[in-house]
Amino acid sequence: MKKLFFLISILLLMPITGLAISLDEIKNNSNRYEKFTEAGIYVAYVDNNSLRKIKQDHPYYTIGSRILIVNIYDEKIYDVYEIFNYDYNQSWNALIYKAKNKYGNLYNNSAAAKELWDEMNRNTGISRIDTSMEIYQFDGTLIDKSILNSQHKVKFNTANFATADYIFHKCYGEYFGIHNQ
What we know:
Elements: H1 2-19, H2 23-28, E1 33-39, E2 42-47, E3 52-57, E4 60-71, E5 76-87, H3 92-103, H4 110-122, E6 126-137, E7 142-153, H5 159-172
Antiparallel strand pairs: 1-2, 2-4, 3-4, 4-5, 5-6, 6-7
Helix pairs in contact: 3-4
């Protein structure tokens, strides 16, 4: 009876410990967990093994990815699975193309620059759905686990925009937003 209880306990704990993530694991697997941004007390990584092109029907794209956000101050790791939806008609390249057709030369054209900037602030063409989140201590101990289903429009010049832009670049080799243009 004790052996059966022990076996059941191990089986119940296996999914939790099998999926646990520690700071050492992130740092020691830089090919899998790629750091893409650092701001203040936060460092963000993408799990390259989790990138999934869910939908690819130009101009609409959907990509799923696991994002790890390390909070240095609280010593916590936020493991979030997000789905990003993209409307390529609102990409930076598409907006530049429209502006060139409207204004011709864009060099030193303040009206075109203002229109481009205003359009990106109005509608980035990106939304995100947070599907799940797990919170770990740096040693990999699970603190909390949540199933989410919240959809948000991604605003320009935010951490979420930088994440979505980076994920798009990882999958398609080009940036969705304004990046080194």
